Amino acid sequence: MAITPIDIQQQQFKTRPIGYEKYGVDEFLEQLAEEMERVLRLNQELREELARTRTSLDEMKQRETTLKETLVTTQRMVKDIKANANKEADIVLSDAQLKAERIVRDAEERRIQLINEIQEIKRQKISFETSLRALVMSHIKLLDLEVVEVEGDNNKDENHLLEESLPFDEITASELNGVDFDLDDNGFDPEDL
Predict the structure, then answer these.
(1) Rounded Cα–Cα distance for residues 43 and 36 (Å)
(2) Where do the H-state alpha helices sit in the chain?
(3) Can you give the C-alpha Rg of the chain in angstroms?
(4) Is the pLDDT of residue 40 over 60?
(5) pTM of this prediction?
(6) How far apart are the first and last CA of the chain?
């Protein structure tokens, strides 16, 4: 059973001829009631403060939970972003490597093609030089031929000279077909003779 300060103040004791002094007991009961009231008020304030503290603690726990969830979500997002960035970097790097390999392959093919073209040009140059030397040599031989004087009555010898083939007749027209005789500074010019 709970005793309130009012219960203490209103408590009446039976009196006996030999007993406590009534004034002392009343004064003590009054002091006790005041102290009890102060303790109850303090207890009520502490309960209210405890309720406020618990409410605040619950709010803090909710905030902490929210912050933890936010932190976990943020960490997961950062991890995903890093993973995506790494994947994207790998893709870009792979594409760059493929392009670089393609460029190197194309350059190598072009180099081989140019080497083949240079070899073909050199072959054509050698063939042309050989044909030109043969032509020049045939002209030189033609110039070096000793012309035999033909006597007026010796028609047989004249016919023989006319029937004899000339050295440049050996070079066919197909060999000279498409030959350009305008040569550059490194070539042979017939006017130099």
Answers:
(1) 10
(2) 5-10, 22-144, 155-163, 173-176
(3) 64
(4) yes
(5) 0.39
(6) 148
Residues 68-86 pLDDT 10s: 999 999 999 999 999 999 9
Mean pLDDT along residues 132-145: 86
Closest CA to 167 of 189, 142, 186: 142
| 182-191 long-range Cβ contacts below 8 angstroms, 24+ apart | 188/129, 188/132, 188/136, 190/136
Q: Is the pLDDT of residue 148 over 50?
A: no
For residue 17, the 8-state DSSP code is S
Contact 136, 190 (CB under 8 A): yes
**């190598």: which residue's tokens?**
108
Query: How many C-beta atoms lie closer than 10 Å to residue 37's C-beta?
Result: 15
For all residues of the chain together, what is the average pLDDT? 79
Distance CA 108, CA 163 (A): 58
Contact 128, 179 (CB under 8 A): yes
